[in-house]
Amino acid sequence: QVQLVESGGGLVQAGGSLRLSCAASGRTFSSYAMGWFRQVPGKERKFVAAINESGGSTYYADSVKGRFTISRDNAKNTVYLQMNSLKPEDTAVYYCAAGPLSTATSRYDYNYWGQGTQVTVSS
Fold first, then answer.
1. Which end of the chain has fewer CB atoms < 10 Å from its terminal CB, N or C?
2. Cα atoms in the Cβ-side hemisphere of radius 13 Å centred on 38
3. Which residues pair with 7 in a beta bridge?
4. Pick from 119, 77, 10, 4: which is nearest to 48 by CA?
5. Cα(9)–Cα(6) distance, integer angstroms
């Protein structure tokens, strides 16, 4: 059982930055790959970024490469998503997820999800 609590969402102007945090409960955090997904109304939840258990491998959606960075601190049971050069099209509810597969990019590969945090980018 893993519980995920997200923070850091908010309103930012285009070109600005935000850092999302996801704090996980329990002692098994280091056994899970972690991912970030985002979803807008009427659309499917889409992959954003993933990181493997040790933090040595990362994957990004093409739309965020070069702008977003995923990282994790296993000692703090926390995963981060640093978002730079934000664009209005980045506006979405962002979800943190934990799963057994290393850097899985499908939402169906993740077992646990955070509650979601709203990110709004204004132009």
1. N
2. 21
3. 21
4. 119
5. 8
